[in-house]
Amino acid sequence: MNRNDDVELPADWDDDSDVGAERRRGRRAALIAFGLVAVLVIGVGIVVGSYLNGLRNSYEKRSVVDITRAEGERPEAEEGTGQNILLLGSDKRSEEAAAAEGVTGQRSDVMMLVHIADDGESVYITSFPRDLYVDIPGHGKDRINAALAFGGPSLAVTTVEDYTGVPIDHVALIDFEGIEGLVDTLGGVDVQVPTDFEADGIEYTAGTQSMDGREALVFVRQRKQFADGDFQRNRNQQAVLKGIADKLISADTLTDPRRLADTIEEVSPYLTTDEGLTAGEMTKLGLSLRSIRGDDLYFLSVPHGGPTTTSGGASVVATDEEAMDVLREALRTDDMGTYYAQYAGAY
């Protein structure tokens, strides 16, 4: 029936009887109820729209950087091979803390390459030792975490792209204050502690330990308490990231709008991303990963050699090019599942 077709009214529509009047009252009540429902739906839509807009406005408080490169300089992207996101944790302190500690600039004490499989069913997080000795474009060979100090997230992306041979789709950098605030906003996270130790007056006990923001932050910065130093610190950083991810993707967090809003509001001022990682792109990415759970996150370390000393006397971590080529091929072809099965825990 078209909208302009004549509508045949029921025979009793103009009935003046008591029954007809009752029916008309019933119809008016139904129409009023329908109208109220319509207003309610529209109102909810407005509220939801305002809420999403609020989240978007909070997210826009982040800083943005340009990670584009001249044509031909970036590794070629191949269709159907997933996405690569570089996560950086900066040791940037507040001005007061930096002055007290005599620290200038910032270096990426946390550097992880997140590979999202093309089918959206699994995510592989590969950590880089902060002292890995690699080529940094325009600066020669140096520790990989120096790229952030030399040229910010853009140079860190360029360095990792050149080293891994795959394009980086997005980058996200968060400083220590943001990590602490994120964990506190989530109400703490459960972290797997490798052994008993003490740091900054905090006791850590082997096994699963619930941590607030400060406890998690102190935990990810420790290395001298462990025989393998930075390598165990990488594993500890992964443990905290897994705790955060488990909390973020848990049902109670995803279905709690207030907590989600608070999380975005808390973290955004400490977050730097590439210009392309907009609120819309984040939403799209989140939807593509809606079936991911904690067991679908796989953690590993980039292949590397042992500790060594440069000609200038600096202590660094050597690369392992032969083993690295295997990882490069797995990333390039989106075959990280096979790689993980063979090399998980090897480094």
Characterise this structure.
- With 347 residues, the protein is of the alpha+beta class.
- It has a single domain, classed as LCP protein (Aminopeptidase), CATH 3.40.630.190.
- The protein has eleven helices and 15 strands.
- It has a seven-stranded mixed sheet with strand order 1-12-7-2-3-4-13, sandwiched between helices. A two-stranded antiparallel ribbon has the order 5-6.
- Strand 14 and strand 15 form a beta hairpin.
- The longest helix is centred in the first third of the chain and has 42 residues.
- The chain is globular.
- It starts with 17 loop residues before the first helix and ends with a helix.
- This is LytR family transcriptional regulator.
- It comes from Brachybacterium paraconglomeratum.
- Belongs to the LytR/CpsA/Psr (LCP) family.
- Keywords: Membrane, Transmembrane, Transmembrane helix.
Keywords:
single chain, 347 residues, alpha+beta, Aminopeptidase, 7-stranded mixed beta sheet, two-stranded antiparallel sheet, 20% strand, globular, disordered N terminus, LytR family transcriptional regulator, LytR_CpsA_psr, LytR/CpsA/Psr_CW_biosynth
Query: Domains counted in the coordinates: how many?
Result: 1
* Largest sheet features: 7 strands, mixed
Main sheet strand line-up? 1-12-7-2-3-4-13
Computed Rg: 27 Å
CATH superfamily: LCP protein
* SSE order: HEEHEEEEHEHEEEEHHHHEHEEEHH
Which fold name fills CATH's third level, the topology?
Aminopeptidase
By CATH reckoning, the class would read: Alpha Beta
The CA-CA distance between the termini, in Å, is 69 Å
- What is the total tally of β strands? 15
Fraction in beta strands = 15-25%
Overall mean confidence score, pLDDT: 82
| Tally of helical segments | 11
